[in-house]
Amino acid sequence: MSNREGKFLPSPQPATRPYWEACKRHELLFQECSQCGVRQFYPRTICASCSATELQWVQASGSGTVVSWTVVRHPVSPAYAADIPYVIALIELDEGPTMMAQIVDCDPESVNSGMPVEVCFEDWTEEISMPNFRARPNTGA
Fold first, then answer.
1. Selection from 54, 36, 141 nearest residue 44 by Cα
2. Which residue range is the domain that position 74 belongs to?
3. Is 6 contained in some domain?
4. Is the pLDDT of residue 82 over 70?
5. Is residue 78 part of a domain?
């Protein structure tokens, strides 16, 4: 477990509990509407497109692309000072939904729009594992 003393921990709620339980298993989930087929993230109790309540959980491949990002250079509290600088990015998953997450294991100045990334998990507590993303290894010829 990493040192998270003084940092903000997510508080799983009934609508988000399946998501956080999957993260504990190092699996990334998103929701898909059984009525209209729209895929969405963040977890909700209704479809953001058609307001249907029949949502299913789908496992993501874990691959995506950076859409936008910011480099955080000023900590929001003293608990985050050792992490500076770090990158928070919007990641478009290969399956369509967009989520916000931290980019880890790379120089913040190397992050760019269109950068291929993959999910990795950081165990914060016994109950919470945070999904982060890192640059996808170059698999080209």
1. 54
2. 17-135
3. no
4. yes
5. yes
pLDDT in tens, 26-78: 999 999 999 999 999 999 999 999 999 999 999 999 999 999 999 999 999 99
Q: What is the mean pLDDT of the chain?
A: 94
Q: Which strand (E) or helix (H) includes residue 133?
A: strand 129-135
The H or E element containing residue 33 is strand 29-33
Please give the DSSP secondary-structure letter assigned to residue 78. Answer: G
How many structural domains does the chain have? Answer: 1
Q: Is 20 helix (H, G, I), strand (E, B) or coil?
A: helix
Give residue 16's region: left, alpha or beta (phi > 0; psi -120 to 50).
Answer: alpha
| pTM greater than 0.85 | yes
Q: Which residue has the higher pLDDT, 25 or 137?
A: 25
Contact of 133 with 89, CB cutoff 8 Å:
yes
Q: How far apart are CA 104 and CA 50, in angstroms?
A: 35
Please report, for the domain that includes residue 46, its CATH number. Answer: 2.40.50.840
Integer Cα distance of 8 and 120 in angstroms: 19
